[in-house]
């Protein structure tokens, strides 16, 4: 179960760390000699700010001193911090020393990483804590027995290589930003504490039913947990339903609650208390479901005016800070969005937190992208792990309404067709109050454009990525999209085309802003009156780094942004803005 940290006060381990590249993967042995707790080693575990070579020590690692790397600010993508690392993929050793006194903490302590791309191995004071695979989700280790009074040294081996059996695999249309891309923190808690909780809201008739589950670590038979909603003047005692799981319910009249919605993103405090542990969080209460071809929020159909985003900021790689996040929401608000697709992997938790406050609905996804090894059982395990880590991180965010399990995977591949429904089921096991989706393809047939993907039968909402007007045909071809009467809602999860900002010409000249704007006009015309299409998230808000895009207009960037990487708008931005402010703007 994912450790809940965001609403807790934690000790930040961000700031200056040391980083050493290890392209040939030679230093692990040195590291063990130097830092191992072997008492024959005269250095023992004695980290020094700067290691001075000592000839009396056997295997003295003259070529490698963990404390003597380049100084980098964490969180960061290393290629943005150190220019020579710009295209480097491989191992980097990170070190951070910090002081700790027992009084600082509670009974239990964890070190928690927001995300390290792609694999990580972690040691504290020479003890291996564990490892993690997956570049975009948080993980933590119990360090209760490892922290020592005084100086402590945390070492991370980060590996940004791309793997054939990874998720994603080696082939993606985005840049592989290696690094400790999100914050690192120490979390201290009492011995018995709330490891995580989950709030689910259902609306039926005029009644709002709230179901709360909580997972308590180290509970005893006497453990009790209460949950309060101070603004609603209501509280509940949860009952034990499993070894560490407790649940409880509360029913309110709809008239007494302001349900969360984009136009009024009301959040309520939820306070969970067990023994000495208190967690207070902010949550929205809302109900999302599908009815026929509509997505229905709090009983009303809603059309999703969206945009897709990568998690990338110019000069910062994947390590966005609060200002970058706020800026993204300003762009979305200016466009008139009520929805965003956070592609193609879990973005930072702060995106969803901000979306809760700003009233932007979200599609979140794991990087099961293009052609991963669906048949490999260890890949399936990793797949489930990434889904679990994302879902358990964001399942209390009212903004998140869609969990996407895959992007543009081949629906003629039998193995994929067997595995993806299992992943959809797995998502529902974890969270059956949101909608399951995937970005699929449309097939061009004699009967028009149709969704042939058998996965459609296992999804609540079908996403389609289509590039009519860019990779093929014209944008107006989308008019041939065949509605399935009473079929599931369809979201255009991607559409668009490339334009070099500032490059102008006729509407039929590729790479001009005018050409891109024409695609948007055609796509909008096709989408807006189609009964089955329930929303749109064109590809993409910003131009982004993409190693496979190298023509004279691209030079390492995918130029399908409606804003360039420096934040300068293209014409298509205004076309989309106009649409969102006039049509479907309710
Ligand atoms: C897609 C992919 C996205 C690419 C985009 C493109 O369908 O999902 O990752 O960047 O096309 O630009 O071709």
Automatic annotation (TrEMBL):
One of its GO terms (molecular function) is hydrolase activity, hydrolyzing O-glycosyl compounds. GO terms for biological process: carbohydrate metabolic process. Keywords: Glycosidase, Hydrolase. It comes from the Archaea. The keyword Membrane does not apply. Residues 81-190 form the Glycosyl hydrolases family 2 sugar binding domain. Gene3D superfamilies: Galactose-binding domain-like, Glycosidases, Immunoglobulins. Residues 288-580 form the Glycoside hydrolase family 2 catalytic domain. Pfam families: Glyco_hydro_2_C (PF02836), Glyco_hydro_2_N (PF02837). PANTHER family: BETA-GALACTOSIDASE, BETA-MANNOSIDASE. Belongs to the glycosyl hydrolase 2 family. This is Beta-glucuronidase. It comes from Halocatena pleomorpha.
């Amino acid at each position: 179960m994912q450790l809940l940290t965001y609403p807790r006060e934690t000790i930040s381990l961000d700031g200056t760390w040391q980083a050493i590249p290890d392209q040939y993967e030679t230093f692990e042995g040195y590291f063990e000699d130097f830092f191992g707790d072997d008492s024959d080693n005269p250095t023992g575990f004695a980290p020094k700010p700067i290691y001075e070579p000592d000839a009396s020590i056997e295997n003295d690692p003259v070529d490698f001193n963990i404390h003597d790397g380049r100084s980098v600010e964490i969180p960061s993508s290393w290629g943005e911090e150190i220019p020579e690392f710009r295209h480097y993929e491989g191992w980097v050793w990170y070190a951070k020393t910090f002081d700790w006194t027992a009084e600082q903490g509670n009974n239990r302590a964890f070190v928690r990483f927001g995300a390290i791309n792609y694999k990580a191995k972690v040691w504290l004071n020479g003890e291996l804590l564990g490892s993690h695979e997956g570049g975009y989700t948080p993980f933590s280790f119990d360090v209760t027995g490892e922290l020592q009074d005084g100086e402590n040294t945390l070492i991370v081996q980060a590996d940004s290589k791309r793997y054939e059996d990874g998720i994603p695999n080696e082939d993606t249309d985005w840049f592989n930003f290696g690094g400790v891309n999100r914050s690192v923190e120490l979390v201290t808690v009492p011995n018995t504490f709330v490891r995580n909780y989950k709030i689910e809201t259902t609306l039926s008739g005029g009644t709002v039913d709230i179901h709360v589950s909580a997972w308590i670590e180290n509970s005893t038979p006497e453990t009790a947990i209460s949950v309060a909603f101070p603004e609603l003047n209501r509280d509940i005692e949860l009952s034990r339903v499993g070894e560490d799981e407790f649940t409880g319910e509360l029913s309110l009249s709809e008239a007494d609650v302001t349900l969360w919605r984009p136009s009024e993103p009301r959040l309520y405090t939820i306070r969970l208390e067990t023994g000495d542990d208190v967690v207070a969080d902010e949550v929205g209460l809302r109900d999302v479901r599908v009815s026929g071809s509509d997505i229905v929020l709090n009983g009303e159909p809603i059309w999703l005016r969206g945009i897709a985003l990568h998690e990338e900021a110019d000069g910062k790689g994947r390590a966005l800070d609060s200002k970058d996040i706020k800026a993204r929401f300003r762009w979305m608000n200016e466009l008139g969005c009520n929805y965003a697709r956070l592609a193609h992997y879990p973005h930072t938790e702060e995106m969803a937190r901000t979306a809760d406050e700003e009233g932007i609905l979200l599609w979140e996804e794991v990087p099961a992208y293009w052609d991963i090894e669906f048949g490999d059982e260890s890949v399936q395990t990793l797949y489930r792990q990434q889904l679990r880590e994302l879902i358990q991180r964001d399942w209390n965010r009212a903004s998140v309404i869609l969990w996407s399990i895959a992007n543009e995977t081949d629906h003629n591949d039998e193995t994929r067709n067997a595995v993806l429904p299992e992943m959809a089921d797995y998502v529902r096991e974890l969270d059956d109050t949101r909608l399951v989706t995937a970005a699929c393809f449309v097939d061009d047939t004699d009967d028009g454009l149709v969704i042939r993907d058998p996965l459609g039968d296992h999804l609540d909402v079908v996403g389609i990525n289509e590039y009519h007007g860019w990779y093929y045909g014209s944008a107006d071809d989308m008019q041939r999209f065949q509605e399935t009467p009473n079929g599931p809602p369809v979201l255009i999860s991607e559409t668009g085309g490339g334009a070099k900002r500032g490059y102008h010409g006729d509407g039929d000249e590729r790479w001009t802003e005018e050409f891109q704007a024409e695609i948007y006009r055609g796509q909008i015309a096709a989408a807006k009156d189609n009964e089955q299409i329930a929303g749109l998230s064109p590809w993409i808000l910003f131009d982004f780094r993409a190693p496979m895009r190298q023509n004279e207009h691209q030079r390492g960037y995918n130029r399908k942004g409606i804003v360039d990487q420096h934040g300068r708008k293209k014409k298509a931005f205004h076309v989309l803005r106009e649409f969102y402010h006039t049509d479907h703007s309710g």
